[in-house]
Amino acid sequence: MTSLPSLTSRHPQVPADDLLAGFVPPPHFADATFDSYRPDPDHPGQAQAREHARSLAERLQDPPRRRWWTRTTPAGPALYLDGGFGVGKTHLLAAVAHAVPEAAFGTFVEYTHLVGALGFGVTVRRLSRRPAVLIDEFELDDPGDTVLMSRLLRELNDAGVALVATSNTLPESLGEGRFAAEDFLREIQALSDRFEVVRVDGPDYRHRGAPHPEGGLPDVEVRDGASAGGGTVDTFEDLLHHLRTVHPSRYGALVQDVPVVGITAVAPLIDQADALRLVVLVDRLYDRDVPVLLGGVGTTGLFGDAMLRGGYRKKYLRALSRLTALAAAGRDQLPAST
């Protein structure tokens, strides 16, 4: 059998000094603006969220001058967009980034890795030069991240940096169900008190009229379709094994410039660490609009009932939402004879 390109043959390296240069909206949201955001008239919270985000961006375009008689810098504004999957929160966050030159845009995990790569002090100094720090999919998965991000954002906000975050969990509920959140209530409360919370309601636009979950394609069709599209093919087991060897911050580089990703023999996940790595990979594929061809079970039963009832439920549901959209795009690209 002819060997096809694979993700498992890729071992991306991202120099620490290059990390901050990548803190921009991903290709999927390269053209996101406030005007291109289409609020659902049945859910007025979407229009209200757009106006809150637009207003904040306008304030940052014309920042207040520091008073000459004081050396203190007022804390920056902080906006928290809370809502379900597929209601346009990331679109609005990207619109703020495009409207505010030099704003930093990244996911929660990308900011935590930035601290790990550069060190806390350097990260604070580098980000303090930005007018705004924008955090997508804000979520706290462990106590260490709680303390780290709470301290980072407090110091940045105290330095006058504006904060905008998106999440599907209210600030005071971050970390709920994952660890002993009551032990960290002081950190969580100190962080949540800084944000103006705006609810973005509505159904997931990716699922409007789209059937889900969906079984996988025959593996031969996955291989043939990925080959025809110049993409990669990996077995699900091999891919999960490879993801264990690559830091999640490099998953974007792992799939960079791949036109389509084929995964054969997809099976229900049994290990939570593997499941969380897959969530990050799906996010990076979605950011880059990379179609996916799934064999095996497809998205049916990919995350078991126990996972969907657990503390990472919202992460898994977001991954299913995005993977469903990517799989539909992959099927649309299949040759007519496939």
TrEMBL record:
Ranges for domain AAA+ ATPase: 75-201
Keyword Transmembrane helix: no
Segments of skewed composition (Basic and acidic residues): 37-63
Keyword list, A-Z: ATP-binding, Nucleotide-binding
GO cellular component term of the entry, any: cytoplasm
GO MF terms, alphabetically ordered: ATP binding; ATP hydrolysis activity
SMART domains cross-referenced by the UniProt entry: AAA
Region (Disordered): 1-20, 32-63
Pfam family of the protein (one): AFG1_ATPase
Polar residues composition bias: residue spans: 1-11
Domain of life, source organism: Bacteria
Protein name: ATPase
